[in-house]
Amino acid sequence: MKKSRLKTPFTVCIILSLVCMAVFTARLVDWQLIHGNQYKLISAKSTNYSVQTDAVRGEILDKNGVGLVVNTTHYKIVIDKLYADEDTLNNTCLLLISLLEKTGDTWNDTLPIEMNGDDYRFKPDSDEAVAQLRSYVEVKQDASAALCIAALKQKYSVPDGYTPPQLRKVLSVRYGMAQEGYSNNNPFVIAGDISRNAMNAVSENTQGVSGVDVQTYLVRRAENATLAPHILGAMGAASQEDLDRLKDSKKEYQLTDEVGKFGIEQVFEQELKGVGGTKIIRKNAGGSIVDTVETIDSQPGNSVFLTIDSRIQKATAKSLEKNIRDAKAYGQEQAEYKGEKLQGEDCESGAAVMLSVRDFSVLAAASYPTYDLNKYSDYGDYYVKLTQNKNAPLFNRAFTGTFAWGSVFKPCVALAALEEKIIKPDTNIYCTEKYDYYPTNVVKCMHRHEDENLNGAITESCNYYFAETGRRLGIENMYLYAEKLGFGEYTGVEIDEARGTLAGRDSTTWEEGNTVSAAIGQSDNAFTPVQLATYAATLANNGTRLKTHLVSKVTDYTRKTTVKDYNQKKTVDTAGVSKNNLKLVQEAMLNVTKSEAGTAHSVFGNYKIKVAAKTGTAENSGSDHTTFICYAPYEKPEVAVAVVLEHGVKGTYSMQVARDMLDAYFNEK
Predict the structure, then answer these.
(1) Residue 365: Cβ within 10 Å count
(2) How many folded domains does the chain comprise?
(3) 419 in the same domain as 523
(4) Which helix (H) or strand (E) holds 115?
């Protein structure tokens, strides 16, 4: 009997244990096998949060590493929902606003309601924002400001106890949060670009305040905003057209992204764009942060080094502006003195380019008038004013502006005529000042030069000589050699450039008499400054034309590792003339500066370095353009220059720009 009594409780315990094990096993099967994926998803959604980190865009630098477009560090105050205490959020907002107001910093105040004493009223000129607010709080479209405040207070469950001004501030922040999509994945920026005083004040006074963080962020800006905006380019919101263009990119784009719209920013978008990172944060059931379970690091974009020398670029831009103003002032004086217009009083713009003869890299390329790239990027009133400016400051004259250049075209004609044996170095042509072989295309010369040979015709820029030479040469021979020297051809620069118009080849109509005008750089001839600089560099390089380029290399963001090198020389064409013929023209171009009869002697006659050059004056609508090309040193050329002052008339001013550019280059050496 005793044995039976002991056995019964033991049996019951075993049965109960088996039942419990069966229940737990069933639950485990349900959790892990039957509904495992469902419970796993629920768990992930409730405890893990993905936070995106910013993508850092690569910088743009000059050839020496001087920053042109850089990322500067700024500070912002954010409220992070992952860490914030909802019960104290309103008081946290008031604390932050109070600190910011004391330091004189602004906060993100988007509510279109202001205080009128202790009453509320809508801000003036805010009809659209008011209509949006009324729709958001679901009140009638004629509801008062006070009614909107009451509706917001109820929507956000804001308790009583705040003064009217305090309530308005709290509601403005809460409303701003809603408009900005405040969430676990999207912290709210209550103030951006704050001062160091504000950063210190917030850091010191928010110890123990949950959810408040002072963060650094990068702002992209041009270091010298007016120096080379046409080259550097700007960022803007991605359009559908942009997304279509970038759809095959290795990097992902969305409509919320900003992309390069023109210039280097656009052409090197793929290199410059960075990739944002992802931070996965885990919270426990009580809402507290446990840890960061995974981090995907962001990848900054690459940096682009240009061939531009910012010091020479600065000297070029400064001289261009000064000489355009001086040319205009001189033109106004002459117009008043002579009682005639078209004396240069309409000179408002121009461009200048310097290339390295060694590899045809662009050392400077300035266009005037210029503009402030940092203001432009805001696309506000400043942008509208730029688009309405009659002098078109947004127009990149250095690369896309096409102009008549006049007599700087004559060395090309001379080379072609020599090579085709149309003339010899000692061929004399008698200049009577007025060339009228074609009565409908009469060419006038500056003076009656009488007998001129090749050297004298280039030195003194005799139109009569080249009109007759051009007639004998013919337009087809003329433009075939011009093509080889780069006229009417793309130079190869990485950003947008114009091809220009080469008379005869690109003309829609042509008469035989037009050839004499084309031979002195008129007729339909219209070329860009970078094409003329390439032409001058080709003459300096003994007839070998290289690919003109604006980018030196692409490196990683740290600038330590070169990703791609763009400095290799690439031959595009040769002039197709003998060394002897080339030497004859080069010597004549030296005489342009060294001979007392030379058209550039007044500016370069006493220059410390030998300069080969050619001056030009081009007729067009308005006052004549003044143009100039040169290279130096003559014996061993290093740089080539092209300058055009639209409607500048007097050649002294274009020559002075070139002299200042050469000074900037050689003084450094």
Answers:
(1) 30
(2) 2
(3) yes
(4) strand 113-116
